[in-house]
Amino acid sequence: MRPIVRKGSFVHSGNRLAYTEYGRGERVLVLTHGLLLSQRMHEPLARALAARGNRVITLDLLGHGASDRPRDMWRYSMTLFAEQVVAVLDHLDIDSAVIGGTSLGANVTLEVAFLAPSRVRGMVVEMPVLDNALVAGALAFTPIMVAFTFAEPVMLGLAGLVRRLPHRGVPFWLDVGLDILRQDPGPSAAVVQGVLFGRVAPHRRERRRLTQPALIIGHHRDPIHPFSDAGMLAEELRNARLAEASTVLELRLTPQRLTGEIATFLDECWAPRRVSPRRPAARRSAHASGSSAAG
Hints:
Elements: E1 5-12, E2 15-22, E3 28-32, H1 43-50, E4 55-59, H2 78-91, E5 97-102, H3 104-115, E6 120-126, H4 134-150, H5 152-163, H6 172-182, H7 185-196, H8 204-207, E7 214-218, H9 227-236, E8 240-244, H10 250-253, H11 256-270, H12 286-294
Parallel strand pairs: 3-4, 3-5, 5-6, 6-7, 7-8
Antiparallel strand pairs: 1-2, 2-4
């Protein structure tokens, strides 16, 4: 049975943010996307998890997808993105949820856990971008930022051409990738600038204080998302486990195994929490008291 899908939006700090809900219920998962991508990248996963009894919310962060796209660099940062995730919880009257995301969304997930720990039931962190990825990330995204900034007329023309391409008949994941080129390049440049020149993630001292259960998904052979960052994060967090993907595309193209791991993790996060009964304080015998006093 296909899950119920509802699209919505709300205003946060003067800007409209778009989201989509898949399924119903109290077991909520909020997913955020990669840099310059949109919530569409999580649609297949959201549908699959909703079919297993979860309520999945995908969010377009500011500057992405169907959300507003201001051109001001200062509006874009990991901490502001984290505030937007908390804002969608407030908008939908959700007390707590499992928070997850990919790449940019993975780092936003860590920021949400640091910003509002009581709202985070667990974390699904796919391909975090931490210490070992900073140089490769800068090398990869700096040319994109330069093209969007200094070749804006050319990129505007390219965007116009890509927008004319029909969606029908285009493979889903290619169409998701083309969303990057369909957008106005000015706001996209501001997004990249804000992310590159701001705080990348909570400091390792802050990460080590996070206690929420975490499923961390990493893979090899990708300098922007090195497996060493995923492994380091799994060691830093107090309650984390590491899942190794075969490639960067496994969850996209052959998702059954990893979707199953995520679904099992959600079951664990939403299982009734056991409260250990308090043991009554041991009473000291009169004999013991007397011996102590005599000593």
